[in-house]
Design a protein that fits this description.
metal-binding; five-stranded mixed β-sheet; Znf_SWIM; elongated; four-stranded mixed β-sheet; SWIM-type domain-containing protein
Length: 291
């Protein structure tokens, strides 16, 4: 089991500027999709052309994963919900996912824990529900939009991000097809690896089982910072990791950061995305290797 950490070999803790805004909002920024407007012969014509383009493309928005969605088929209320979610993404981190009978369940944390359920219906369509209870037929909740956008990014990994997807009223891209069927075809374990979200066995839910996957990922992330193999990095910490309540380990920054990675899902996501922010590099996904 491995995680995409190659760019960490060129990254030091000093490069993580303390002036950078910490938190999910620093990494998840959505905005209106705006292609380049060609130059015109006069300022008046340029301004007029720009206004026309804005009017024409106002129904295309860009998500935090940089996918473009065409929302012109949605009711006005739903359009507003999509715009709001993508322009100011909720501070969400995935905790775990599982398959329970005919339902894929994704658990995520915000200020409170929320659960998205994607159930297979008898008519071949999926039933999408969120534990927040704020979604309805005209306006999907922000949690559902957030999750389906990330699942779509994983499952349509070779889709041209400059080509707008068609947003459905249920909160996912039409090009994805039925969400339950799409997840089934791409396999939950492959998807969870790309999302850094552990697949758990509903029959075995000990605290040790839930933490083991994150321990291994954290070791690989920290070892990559030092350019070492995970097996050789700090065996004194990882041979028998202590998952106590205290995060601070005095005189030991590596151990302190390791405990922070286990303790806070948002910090783990922030740390895992550091190579993209500091180096501008791209990390490969096991999903692409699987295909």
């Amino acid at each position: 089991m491995s995680v995409p950490v190659a760019p960490f070999s060129r990254l030091s803790l000093d490069e993580m500027s303390p002036t950078s805004q910490f938190g999910p909002h620093a990494a998840l920024q959505g905005d209106v999709y705006e292609p380049t407007v060609e130059d015109s012969s006069s300022d008046l014509e340029s301004y007029s052309d720009s206004e026309d383009d804005d009017d024409e493309l106002s129904m295309v928005v860009q998500s935090p994963t940089k996918l473009a969605y065409n929302i012109n088929q949605l009711p006005e209320k739903a359009q507003g919900a999509v715009r709001e979610t993508f322009s100011e993404p909720p501070a969400i981190a995935l905790q775990q996912c599982r398959l329970i009978d005919d339902t894929y369940a994704f658990q995520m944390t915000e200020l409170v824990t929320q659960s998205i359920r994607i159930r297979a219906n008898g008519d071949g369509s999926s039933q999408l529900t969120c534990s927040c209870g704020r979604g309805d037929e005209a306006e999907p909740c922000s949690h559902l939009l957030w999750l389906l956008d990330r699942l779509t990014k994983q499952m349509l990994y070779d889709y041209d991000p400059k080509t707008p997807l068609t947003m459905t009223q249920d909160g996912f891209a039409k090009e994805l097809g039925d969400p339950f069927t799409a997840i089934s075809e791409h396999h939950l374990d492959v998807l969870s690896d790309g999302l850094h979200c552990q697949v758990i066995d509903p029959e075995a839910l000990s605290e040790d089982d839930l933490a083991s996957y994150r321990v291994q990922e954290s070791r690989e992330l920290l070892s990559a910072v030092y350019g070492k193999t995970p097996e050789d990095f700090r065996p004194d910490i990882f041979a028998r990791p202590v998952l106590g309540k205290k995060v601070l380990k005095r005189n030991d920054l590596d151990c302190t950061v390791f405990r922070m990675l286990l303790d806070n899902h948002h910090f783990f996501n922030y740390f895992q995305d550091a190579p993209q922010r500091c180096l501008g590099g791209e990390t490969s996904s096991r999903m692409r290797q699987a295909h």
